[in-house]
Every structure is written in C-alpha cells, then in structure tokens.
Amino acid sequence: MVGPLRATAAASYVTTSGSKLMYQGQPIALRGVNFNNEPALACCGGPDINLINANQSDYAQAHSLGVNHLRWGIDYNWYAANRTQFFSVLDQHMAWAAQYQLWVYLVDFIPPGGSSGGFDQSAAKGYCIWSDCATSGANQTLLNNMWQDIATHYANNPTIVAYDVMNEPAPPADSQWHSLATRLYNTLTAADPNHLVIIEAPLSNDLSLFTQTSRVIYSVHHYPGGDNFPTGTPANTPMIVGEFGDVRTSSTAVSFVSSEVSRYNAAGVNWTYFIWREDPVGFGLYVDPAGSFTSPWTAMIGTVQSGWAGNVLPAPVSGTPSPSPSPLPSASPSPTPPPPPPSGGVPTYDHIFQIMMENHSYNEVIGQQYITSLTTKGAVAGNYFAVDHPSLPNYLAVTSGQDPAFATSDCAPGPGCDLAGANLANSLEAAGKTWKSYNESMAAGGAATCRPDGDSLYDVNHNPFMYDTDITNNSARCNSHVVDYSTLAGDLSSAATTPNYVYINPNLQNDMHEGTIAQGDTWLSQNVPALLRSSAFTTQHSLLIVMWDEDDGSQNNQVAFIALGYNVKTAYKSGVLYNHYSWLKTIESSWGLTTMTSNDGTASPMTDLFGTGSAPPLSASATASPKAGDAPIKQPAPVASPPVASAPNAPATPASSPTGQPAASASGAPAPAQNAPSGSGAPSGPNGAGLLLTLVGSLFVTGLGGTLFLGWLRRRA
After folding, report:
1. Nearest one of 438, 432, 290, 425 to 348, comparing CA atoms
2. For residue 699, which phi and psi values (nearest 5 degrees)?
3. Deepest of 157, 307, 349, 675, by most Cβ within 10 A of its Cβ?
4. Which helix (H) or strand (E) holds 668?
C-alpha cells in the first residue's frame, strides 16, 4: 500500500484570489481531462473498484500531452464495501498523479442511495438522496461522513486540489441541493484546511441560493445545445467547466470542442475535457482498456492539447514514494510507461523538430504575435547567440560542431566548400535514429531531392546536409533524406513514419531572409500547429525548436531560441549563456550521441529549459551578457468575464440501476439506506461503459432575466 503523500518540505496548495486560482503566488488555470473510472461505477458496469480503466501509463501519457489536472471519479459503494481497499487504491493513483505532475480533484459520481451517474437521482428511478425518498436523510449523512473521512486522509496531500462533492445534482428543488452542498462544504473545509470545494450547478443551472465565496469553485457541464454558464453564480469566484465534449461519431465534435476551449481560455475559465477513455463510439480520447493508446482520437487530441499548451504544472513533491505495483487488473497487458520527467537533465525524446529561421535579432522577433504566443507555451533561451556571420557557419555549427573558414563566404557546396567525417546525420544513424531534412520550395525550381543549387526561394546555404560529402556522395542516401518540405505532411501521418530528427528549412520568403518578420511570423502560425497536433506529439515525447541562424548585426548576434514540447518549462526565460554548440550538445545529450568536436564537446547542454518553472513577463528586450541564474516569466493573468445568463444542462437518462448495495463492511463504512421501491423502478442496462445519448426535445425555462430556450443533447454519465 502507498500511504497518503506528505510533502517533506512546506507544501504548496492551489488557492483562490477572487475569480482566480493561485499557485505559488501566480495565477493559474486548471485545464485537464476526466478520469471518471466509468466501468467501475455502479451506473456503468460496477460497482467494482477493480474495474477502474486507468493505470500508470495513462498518467504518464496525460502528462506528456500537457494535462495539468484530472477530475477523478469515485463511487460510494467502493468505500462502503471496503474502506481499506478504497484508500489503498486511491493512494496508488494519487501517487501516480504526483509522479507525473498532475493535480487531482475527486468527484463523487455515485452517492449513497445511487444515481444514474448523471442528472438523475430520483426516487421514481429507485434512487434515494433527495426528499422524494423517505430515508434520504440517512444517505446524505453517509455522504457527508465519507467526504469527511476523505478530507482528513488527504488534508496534507498537495496533489489534491479540490473535492467535487456530487456529480450533476438533480434535486426536486434547488433549496435541497443548497442545503446538502452547504453541509458538505462546511464539513470539508473544517476537516481539511488546505484544499478547495467544488459545487456544481444543479439541473436548473441556477446558483443564486449559494453565498460561499471562500475556498470554493463553482462548476457547470457543457454539451452541444446546453453550453450556458449558470445564473446567479456568486460574484468574484472561480468557475470550472467540469465536463464538456461530444462523441466520436459527431461530425461537429471537434469544432464544438475547439470553440469551447477558445471561449474558456479567453474568459479565464478553468476546464476539464470529458473524457480520457471510453468505448469506441464514446467521448474518449482513447479507447478502453487501461494503458492502451492504440485507438487515439487524433483530431480531438490535437484540439484539446492545443488548449493545454502552456499549462502550469504542480511542482514535484519532495519525497514522493515510488508507486508499488498496481492492485488493479487490466484487460490486456499494459505497455511500459514512459519514464517520469527527469530532474536536471535533457529528456530522452522520441522526436526532435528543428525549424531554422533567418537573419533577425532576439529583440526584433520576440514580440511578434505568434512567436510571442509560443513563448508562453514553452521556454525561451534569453541569452542565446549565433557563432558567426553570415548564415552558413551557423548551419554547419548546428549540424557538425564546426565553423570552417570556407563557410564565411556562403559558398555553394562543392570541392573546397564541403565537409567529410563527423556530422549529425552520421551520429543519428549510428545510434539507430532516423532523420530527414525538409526544404520548402526546393522542388519548385530544381531537383525534388538532394538539390545542390539554389534560387530565389530555396537557398542551399540553409540546408547544411548538402555540405556533408558522406551524404552527397551517396545518391540513394541523399535522395531519401534531403527532401522537399511538401513531403512532411505525409510523414507526419503516424509517429512511426515521422523521423526521430526533423530539420525544417522554410523558403527565403518565409524564413524572414527575404520576406518580412511579419511574413515569417504568419508562416509559423500556419505550420507549427500541424506539428503539435501530429501523433509524434500526441502519442509520444517530442520537442520542437524554433531558432534563428544569426542576427542582422543589431544585437551582437543574439538570436531567439524557443523550445516547446514534452517536459519543457512553460512561460520560462533562461538567462544562461548558450550558443549553437549548446543546442547541438543538447541533441547529443538527449540521445546519447558522441560529440564531434571540441566545440560541442565542451559546450553545456541546455538543461535548465526542461522540467518545471515559471516566471517575470517576457519583454522584447534582453540583456546580451551572461547571467548567473534563470529569470522566470510570469504568464499573463487570465481575464475573467462574468457568467452569462443561462439555462440548465440536460438530464441524462440512467443506463442502469445501482443494484446490490453492500451491507456494512468490516471497515465500518455503513451501507446506504434504500428507497422503498428500489429495484422495481430502476431501468436495467448492460454492463460495461456503454453509451446512451438522449435528445431531450425543447424546453422553456423561466429564470432570471426572462425565458430561455434549450435544445439538449446529453450523454449517459
């Protein structure tokens, strides 16, 4: 058993400041995904805690995509059946979350007395939590006591961010939800001084009865046709969209989620996508079983991952225990999980992408619209220098560790203007790595592969692999590795066809050499997202570098260098002195390559860009001198917008009844009181995480500010 995590130093917890969430003194946004453990819930195949459909690999994968928190579903039946097992399993999962730098908020999907898992806890369906059931008071006490026990257990665990007291409450009257939620809020805040409480909007979508403004987050669920914010939300409090999404079979699913993510991020609203994994026609980014990533919903993964970019992650917990073998069986063997993020080193990447831009200083490009957006999503080397002028010496430095005398003439490749021996391509192949040089417009004016000359769009000086005679003297090798940029899209179709090392050379208009800075910024905005959406990034550990070869003489050859991807610090600016040899050494360090010259051999890898970090705002100016330490960048605070007048989310049709409620267990957790007609009125349903969509016609609701028309499409749980 892994016990509850206790920080060995002063722990940091997420707190509130008005409508903002705060962590270590800076505003943050919670942007993550639901692990609702659906097959293990009483509504949907359980109750059986051993059927949880997540294992250690799922936590590692979520971390690699940039997720910063999980909404983690629980069932009272697990607790009532065996309290010891309940905490043992939860502790294991919380340990994995801590290992992969993920916050967690726990949510009760199935309370004592049962629930559909969605907006239905009615006595007419055999459930017993509201006043329509004579024994609901006893079940509310059981729910209160379970939360008190959980809060006491996790009070000092910094991985926990909040407790979501009940999923999709649907009381006969809002006053009943206000009374129960207030009771649970008071119990939790008394038992746990460090964490927040999440109160969901009821079926009416009206929060006007609530007055809590301290240590609280209000929540709403959004699905197509019902994506309004609640009415009556207490002013100056944080909001989280705890569920939103659509099914794979919907032609508008991706566009809906994309627009919602943009809306939430612009409004400073926190959000949790529904859902991590489910059945093949459901909402899941992946398909069951636990630890399987063989059926990714690639388009949706790319959409939500773009929203997760720039997430602030929790700091590693000092003294995090090594998780013991999982007590949870998996339906099929799980792959070996990716290694946890290293501390103080360069990660071992599956893919490294490098885009070389041209001829502008750090100050000239930092501040451009899209380039600046990349700096908030990744790390900037704020004291990075080219090695020489003009272009060619810098390209050769990056790929061979050399600055040969001939290169200062920017000569075309040929006798007297070439290199033999050590080069990056040779090192990669010796280590079993694949590579390609993708050159925009190379095929437009000449050979489609291995082109040794240039024109007004393609500059061979910017394609350093054409200067390595080991490559150019082998036509088969050259033609298969030095190719036109147009072929990259096909190679990105799967991680397996994407080279380990991807070198990208934009044409002279788009790399800022002949075109304007704004034109280059636009090109990046049109091409970088496709890289970040590719399976190399969504299913594996990848790194993207956007860098400049040299400046224009205006800043002592200081140039911009931006890193994005797995385990790269976000919104971070390094003050360490680096140059092109440092970047080459970083590639060599990631893949264990032998250094080529004393230049890269004595250079330091750019290790401070990796791990976690935060920071003072990035400005267009930079100090062109070595710094002793790192200067963090603080992300811009989210701009909050007031909730709009809205209507409730739709009720969900229950898929199955919570049959076979357990009696009091040896652990002492009592069984819930039953509604008199329990079992007779609850609809039966299949085991497993089946999907039921219900279209609940049209509804007129009279509320604050007038009558609202709703068309609802909702899921089962």
Report:
1. 432
2. -140, 135
3. 675
4. none
